[in-house]
Amino acid sequence: MPVFIFKRLLYGLLVLFGVITLVFILFNILPGDPARMMLGQRADISSVEAIHKDLGLDKPLLTQYFNFLNDLSPVSLHNKKNPENYWYLNPDKYSPYLKLISINKTSLVLKIPYLRKSYQTKREVAAVIAEAFPKTLMLAAVSMIFALIIGVIIGILSALYKDGIFDRVAMVLSVMGMSLPSFFAAIIIAWVFAFLLSDYTGLNMTGSLYTVDDFGRGEYISLKNLILPALTLGIRPLGVIVELTRSSMLDVMSQDFIRTARAKGLSEFRVVTRHALKNALNPVVTAVSGWFASLMAGAVFVEYVFDWKGIGVVIVDALEKYDFPVIMGTVLFISVILIIINILTDISYALLDPRVKLD
Q: Which of these, 31, 98, 160, 283, could form a disulfide with 110 (CB 3.0-4.6 Å)?
């Protein structure tokens, strides 16, 4: 198991390196001058040149790339003496940090990855992500829990009553759910449940986790604003989980060990829950892990429609303002989440199904 985990971590690091390189190349060939974005179109030449120097944009592209890698790496090299040096260990950027080794003017430093600062708000990108990510995580987690519980139950019942009315209706609805775009579903659900039926549901068309009190007493947590976006985001994975659970259960229920369990006189409930379901969970785990990662990245439209102040709203706002550091930081952050989830999924295979070979 340790060797297996080490290999998966190594593969993940290689994928992350490729993503970092691709993101740097893409955002450095896009049109637009960051200095002009920060200062406005009427900025004078001296101010623009000062910003270029501060951001390192006056350096060759390869030097900028290595500095980008150095900023993102938890272990990095810096000049500790000269504030004018491009690699200077600026405490405003890299704090907190721990010096590991110092040789002359160069220090090997252990630090938190530095994601640069927003061109528009001047805030650190890490702080922007830290503020928005918990809301997106909550939205994705609630959506996936809803899809997993309901989807597995419906999938099991569809397999047990194959070709019956319940099975046919469930298959039709699951296909409709998988084919329904999230942004379209968000608009329809918001219009129906928060506009037409608002008197009965008490739900709002827009709203985030924190809502400002009407009487000026500050913010409070409003969990009801989570219902509609979580329902919308969970529709597509719900359809996938229903289909996979049904298909996997039908395959497992035809195996010899199921017939043996029934021949021993075990109840149908015990056969399904203790023997069939555990062996049928592998494709469901794959779907859950993949969809959970995609929900983290694909909540952009749903968050924007419902004005849920998560990563999605941050990305849309940064795209509108050409705030490249925020976009790059969020893309890299989501990539790390995807890689971690894929590694955990591979490990869970071996734990759930002993037939999976670690080698």
A: 98
User: What pLDDT is recorded for position 81?
Assistant: 79
Q: Check pLDDT > 70 for residue 351.
A: no
Helix (H, G, I), strand (E, B) or coil at 78: strand
Distance CA 188, CA 305 (A): 10
The tens digit of pLDDT for each residue in 175-228 reads 888 888 888 888 888 888 888 888 888 888 887 777 766 655 666 777 888 888
Nearby residues of 195 by Cβ (< 8 Å), 6 or more positions away: 205
Strand 97-103 relative to strand 210-212, pairing? unpaired
Write down the mean pLDDT value for the chain: 81
Does CATH place domain 125-352 in 1.10.357.10?
Answer: no
From the CB of residue 162, how many other CB atoms can be counted at a distance below 10 Å? 13
Contact 186, 229 (CB under 8 A): yes
Residue 322 belongs to what H/E stretch? none
105: closest CA among 80, 130, 123, 70?
A: 80
Q: For residues 111 and 76, is the Cβ–Cβ distance under 8 A?
A: yes
Q: How many CB atoms lie within 10 A of CB 268?
A: 11
What is the average per-residue pLDDT within 292-305?
77
- Rounded distance between C-alpha atoms, residue 268 and residue 249, angstroms: 13
Beta bridge partners of 124: 117
DSSP state of 180: S
Per-range mean pLDDT, top range of 44-48, 65-69, 259-263, 275-279? 65-69
Domain assignments of the chain as residue spans, ordered by start: 125-352
Count, residues in the chain: 359
What tokens were used for 22?
Answer: 């691709």
Confidence band (pLDDT; 50, 70, 90) for 358? low
Question: What counts of helices (H) and strands (E) characterise the chain?
Answer: 17, 5
pTM, two decimals, is 0.77
User: For residue 355, is pLDDT > 80?
Assistant: no
Rg (CA), the chain: 25
pLDDT at 238 over 80: yes
Instruction: Name which residue leads in pLDDT, 349 or 248.
Output: 248
Find out whether 167 and 161 touch, Cβ atoms under 8 Å: yes
